[in-house]
Design goal:
Elements: E1 2-5, H1 7-11, H2 20-37, E2 42-45, H3 47-54, H4 59-72, E3 73-76, H5 79-84, H6 86-89, E4 91-94, H7 96-103
Parallel strand pairs: 1-2, 1-4, 2-3
Length: about 110
């Protein structure tokens, strides 16, 4: 299965982890990231996602996200097509709350 993580997913591990919801979403995102690294999921990215990442004011975070996308992307797709044709192209578009639901089977 192919997955698309929005920029909120990539940034969640850098958020304040004091809230249980944020901490759980972070762990879920990191688990999905591990599945991508293990080639159990295929990562799809977009040029808009790369643009959003380039606007991150924190250089270390920006570089870590770029590196992950570069090392693990199975392909690129325009976001408009991604949302419009998700069922046809078998790509799961994930926002941060979706990561938590997928990992916990909801």
């Amino acid at each position: 299965m192919r997955v698309y993580l929005d920029m909120c997913c990539y940034n969640r591990p850098y958020d304040d982890q004091a809230q249980l919801k944020v901490a759980m979403e972070t762990q879920s995102k990191l688990h999905i990231q591990m599945l991508i690294r293990e080639k159990k999921l295929e990562l799809v990215v977009s040029y808009m996602l790369r643009y959003e990442c380039s606007k991150n004011p924190f250089e270390m975070r920006r570089n870590a996200i770029f590196d992950f996308m570069h090392e693990n992307a199975a392909g690129y797709m325009p976001v408009m097509l991604l949302r419009q044709f998700m069922p046809d192209v078998n790509i799961l578009y994930l926002q941060i709350h979706d990561c938590l639901n997928i990992i916990h089977g909801k």
